[in-house]
Amino acid sequence: MNPPRSLDPRGWLGRAKEGVAGLSERRAQLHARQEAAYIEAWDDAIHIEEQRSDRIAARDAAAAVPWGVRVAAEVGWRLLVLAATVWVLMRVIGAVRLVVLAFAVALLITALLQPTVARLQRRGLPRGLATAVTAICGFVVLGLAGWFVVWQVLDNLDNLSGRVQEGIGELKQWLVNSPLHVTEAQINDIADRLSSSIGTSTSEITSTGLQGVTVLVEIMTGLLLAMFSTLFLLYDGKRIWEWTLKLVPAAARPSMAGAGPRAWRTLTAYVRGTVLVALIDAVFIGVGIYFLDVPLAVPIAVVIFLASFVPLVGAVASGALAVVVALVTQGVFTALMALVIVLVVQQIEGHVLQPFILGRAVRVHPLAVVLAVATGGIVAGIGGAVVAVPLVAVGNTVVGYLRARVASGPAATAPGPVPVTDGGVDTDADADAGAGAGTSAGTGAVTGVPADGGGEPGPRSGGDDPQSRR
What we know:
Layout: H1 11-59, H2 67-95, H3 97-122, H4 127-155, H5 157-177, H6 184-200, H7 202-247, H8 253-291, H9 297-307, H10 313-330, H11 332-358, H12 366-407, E1 420-421, E2 424-425, H13 466-469
Antiparallel strand pairs: 1-2
Helix pairs in contact: 3-4, 3-7, 3-8, 3-12, 4-7, 5-10, 8-9, 8-11, 8-12, 9-10, 10-11
């Protein structure tokens, strides 16, 4: 039996304290139960997530691989595919190297002659007649130059042999009297060794001669292929370009159509500038060694002209040939004078002519030129060294155009159509106006602009338009 409240010794204050203490204890118990439930729920969630991850990993092993490893793997296999593609392409080009080089030479000749065809067409000549006149004149000039060189060599061969013997005697006497302290016995010993090595290498010389015949046949075949390819490119270059555009996927067709004319203008400017620089080199060096009474001055000038199409290396090699011929035919002093002429002309060419003539058209770093020439020479010999630099220049132009096109954004309007003549792209057109996507739809060509030539292609009908889907 509880005592009366009035008799409870704790009083009302004690009872209040006990009530507050009990309430705090119940709150602590409730908080502990809630925390335990929260921890249990968190553990259950972690367990469920682990089970889900295990199920995903079991279903898709790639999801269990870290993100960085996945990115490295994606980049790695793409690089491997690209390397394999390049390797296969190089093997194919190596197997048909003669055809590829002949077509590349035909492109260079076409880039040189096509402006003449366009001018003749503007003067009223039909396309076929303009092509025939230009090609015949070009091939006749090349044939006459080759015939003149061969005639000069054969006509001066006997005289050259005697002058070479005299030059060798003068060189021998100069070495004996020079500060180099070379004795006549040492010179005779070197000459005997050369004679014996030539005598023991008769079979190798014969084999080299047979290989030379094979190379000569290949050169003649390549020249014929280049001639026929040049004729078709001059006459039907427009339709060949349209057919090439049809092979490109539709998404990349506008970019291809805009980059093609720019690449052609770069190639044309390169060929024109190189021909002009090579002609200046050949004329000045040829005139210089002619007044020095060096034999075969005209054939040497022709060799200098042809060698100038190989940047850097060709000029050095042809200049060295002129100096050597002067040395063995006219003596040391004439050779030194020829060396001075070659160095002066080449310095003017490298520091004045090339930056002025080729600077705007071909913006390629000298290191890239050296690497391109070396790579082309390793892959395809002299022909590869000739086409390497124009290929790099064209690639530089195409990459620059595509980069600018991407930077301009998808909302940028496509450039208008390129002015096209019946012989191909009009290289005299303004560079800013010549980035179109082909010709009108009436010709059957695939174009990247509407028939009226303005703006981007309109949206496609139906649900194929990305804008309509959005």
